[in-house]
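User: structure tokens for this one?
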Amino acid sequence: MDEIQAVRDDVGQDLPHDLVAWWRLCGGTEPGDGTGRLLPPFYEPCPLRAVHAIRGFAVGSGSAAAIRNAGVGEAGSLAGAFLASFVPIAADGGGDYLFVDLRTGSAQGCIQHWSGDDGAAGVVWWSGVAEMLADVADALRHGSEARRGYADAAAQQHFRASTDLASVSDGRLIWESTPISPPLSGR
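Assistant:
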């Protein structure tokens, strides 16, 4: 059985077509040396063979109540536990992940950030893998800010966020973050 089918079986539902297409083209990078931080601000695509293990650890570390409530909330909403319907696609090496949210709702298939300390804040980074890859490609080709849509949405929800500009240093891709402040509340 191929690794994509193994993830599909583990999740128990179909995977988004753009995720499957990306995995068929690129099964991730080898973690650890920092050369694969292709996704802003500092994420390495997870090796496909590691997705099952990451899910097992992350889902298994949730409380029994969180696991029972795995279907609560719509895709793109906040979550305090790593749910069974989350598929990690990139890691920072320190316990944070980018994941595809497979919960139902209009944002199904979106990409969010999982903080090992705070969970998922409920702000969508990209609507899906295709948008993520297009955003990164635009940033690399045209020098545009990656994650601009996320930063604007986060600021509107009064979260601090950043956009990212790509540069190369010593042959390595570097994402330089520029903080975006939330708007001041009117009194």
